[in-house]
Amino acid sequence: xxxxxxxxxxxxxxxxxxxxxxxxxxxxxxxxxxxxxxxxxxxxxxxxxxxxxxxxxxxxxxxxxxxxxxxxxxxxxxxxxxxxxxxxxxxxxxxxxxxxxxxxxxxxxxxxxxxxxxxxxxxxxxxxxxxxxxxxxxxxxxxxxxxxxxxxxxxxxxxxxxxxxxxxxxxxxxxxxxxxxxxxxxxxxxxxxxxxxxxxxxxxxxxxxxxxxxxxxxxxxxxxxxxxxxxxxxxxxxxxxxxxxxxxxxxxxxxxxxxxxxxxxxxxxxxxxxxxxxxxxxxxxxxxxxxxxxxxxx
Length: 298
What we know:
Elements: H1 2-24, E1 25-28, E2 32-38, E3 41-46, E4 50-53, E5 59-65, E6 69-79, E7 85-96, H2 99-105, H3 109-128, H4 133-137, H5 141-159, E8 164-175, H6 178-248, H7 251-270, H8 285-291, H9 293-296
Antiparallel strand pairs: 1-4, 2-3, 2-5, 6-7, 7-8
């Protein structure tokens, strides 16, 4: 009988030991914080993955993610400085850094998302309340990045007491309420049409300046070319007169020149196809040469 009792007790002790051993072990996975609580208070944090130990039945093991998380913030409607409504769609990138502070102040991810939602809405509302709607709509990429950095910095300061790191708060897009969307688009089209008309007018003005200057340069160039042509023609005429003067000052040269010109005239009259007849008077110098009289004169 005693053997049976000792056997049952031994088995019970063995089972209790196995249960205690399993209760004393827990696993920390990659990308997680493991933390051990005792009577609700955190007594140890495990940051490296692997098999860990705790006091069975007294301590409890828990896990919290290390990974960066993306929280899509609910689109919110804010008023601009000129009292016009805009719907802002944004998101936040955040990460747990101090597990003890996070668990003590919040305890879970859902509560942290609520705090982010409230903080981002408050910051965006305050900042965009100092900007006109046109300024926001026509905002350049560099200015938008600066606005995102400003929002991120303020949200980070507001939430730094929760043991988290706010890496970025980004505005995904600006939307307009349906009731004034059409009016805003019409105004934007009108403004850009006016800007385009101004650019066209400025371009036409500059084109007229260029055309007038080009016409002026062309007239100056043509005037200079005509003056050079007249000067060259005058110089050529002067050279011709001087050459003719030199020729006619010498009787022999004058006679030869006259004879040469008469031969040229005869050649032109006989040019062409077919038979031609030239009628010359008896006193014509060419007729005298062709008839041999000129050669007999000496």
